[in-house]
């Protein structure tokens, strides 16, 4: 029997709302599990490409570029190690990422707090382990030689490489500062949310 | 791939059978867009199925189902950061003026959903559980708040809803 919702009772309105009869079958659930696996693998391939580019550039810089500037081999060697560690870290973290379904024992406060902290950590990890090796390699492969050439250039040799590349570096700096600003603001917002939850948890004890 | 236990499927099917409509309503409280809501609901069902791999009966089935469902939905809200920044707590919402008016039930449901969707995840958990007719102790078990804190929040919710819906009713008549 259908109960007519009272227009003034929010509980009645809420509980009698028209339900969407979308049947989630076991087949759909298993499909979702397969999709999740595929999605993780695809995301890993995406990061693997950036790692591969960094790795190839580092190998080329260390073994093919010769010793154009002091410490070149060592810097690119460190890049190779960094890239390999990053690939292992990303692989491990992606397959073991916690999911809401694993947190049935956690209360709402505990989960929201952990999720906010995880969100903050994920961004930090993305910079360190995904973008990091590529940034390091580009900086090593591009900035290193430019700086060395500039240092070695004689004063009467005309405009040096560094001044020619100045617009590029200016744009790069603007992008970096803007990204840093956004990241700091997001981190501050997440921090505030975590502190709010801590205060509620403390009040609730 | 996810390892499964033999009873996982049957437990999930049992829970989906019992709480299916409630999960549908819960998804509405967290997502206004129809397509995204359908996707959220599927994700809730999927995570619920996964969760039964670890369910050991330490808490009631209802607490478990609501916890997992709220976790998935909260995670969805937190991920959509831009929206998260504009969310308010129950206290803040009390001080915001209600804008629209309606007398029709469907519109009231829309207003109620919109009101809930303005709240931060934890307050949404309380208001949705309250609307599902749960008592303070059950809500406390799901959210991790103390029963006294839940009671205070419910009192606030009641005042807020009464004020908003009363206002709406008056305008509509």
How would you explain this protein's 3D organization?
The complex is a heterodimer of chains A (205) and B (173). The longest helix of chain A has 45 residues, at 108-152. Helices cover 77% and strands 0% of the residues of chain A. With 205 residues, chain A is an all-alpha fold. Chain A has helices spanning 10-15, 26-64, 72-95, 108-152, 161-164, 166-204. In chain A, helix 2 (26-64) packs antiparallel against helix 3, helix 2 (26-64) packs parallel to helix 4 and helix 4 packs antiparallel against helix 6. Chain B is mainly alpha-helical and 173 residues long. Chain B folds into two domains: 7-85, Rna Polymerase Sigma Factor, Chain: A (Orthogonal Bundle); 87-173, Arc Repressor Mutant, subunit A, CATH 1.10.10. Chain B is built from nine helices and no strands. The longest helix of chain B has 26 residues, at 147-172. Chain B is globular. The N and C termini of chain B lie far apart (57 Å). The interface between A and B is large, with 47 and 63 residues.
Net shape of chain A: elongated
**Which runs of chain B of at least 5 residues are low in confidence (pLDDT < 50)?**
169-173
Number of helical elements of chain A: 6
* Overall mean confidence score, pLDDT of chain B: 84
Helix-strand layout with pairing:
The complex is a heterodimer of chains A (205) and B (173).
Chain A lengths: L9 H6 L10 H39 L7 H24 L12 H45 L8 H4 L1 H39 L1
Helix pairs in contact in A: 2-3, 2-4, 3-4, 4-6
Chain B lengths: L5 H25 L3 H18 L9 H19 L1 H5 L4 H5 L10 H13 L3 H11 L4 H8 L3 H26 L1
In short:
The complex is a heterodimer of chains A (205) and B (173). With 205 residues, chain A is an all-alpha fold.
